[in-house]
Amino acid sequence: MDTKQILTFKIAAETLNFTRTARQLHFAQSSVTAQIQALERELGHALFERLGKKIKLTESGLQFKGYADQIVQLTREAEAKLTDTPPTLTIGVTESQCTYRLPQLLKKYTRHHPKAELIVKPVNFDAEVCEGIMDGSIDLGWMMGTHHSASLIIEKDLIDEPMVLVAAPETMLGNVSAISANDLNGQTFLLTSKGCTYRVLFEAALAKQQIIAGTIMEFVTVEAIKQCAIAGIGLAFLPEITVRAEIEKGLLAKLNWQAAPESISTYLAWHKGKRLTENIRFFIDSALAMYGKDHVSVHPEK
Question: Where does the record place the HTH lysR-type domain (predicted)?
Answer without folding.
Answer: 1-58
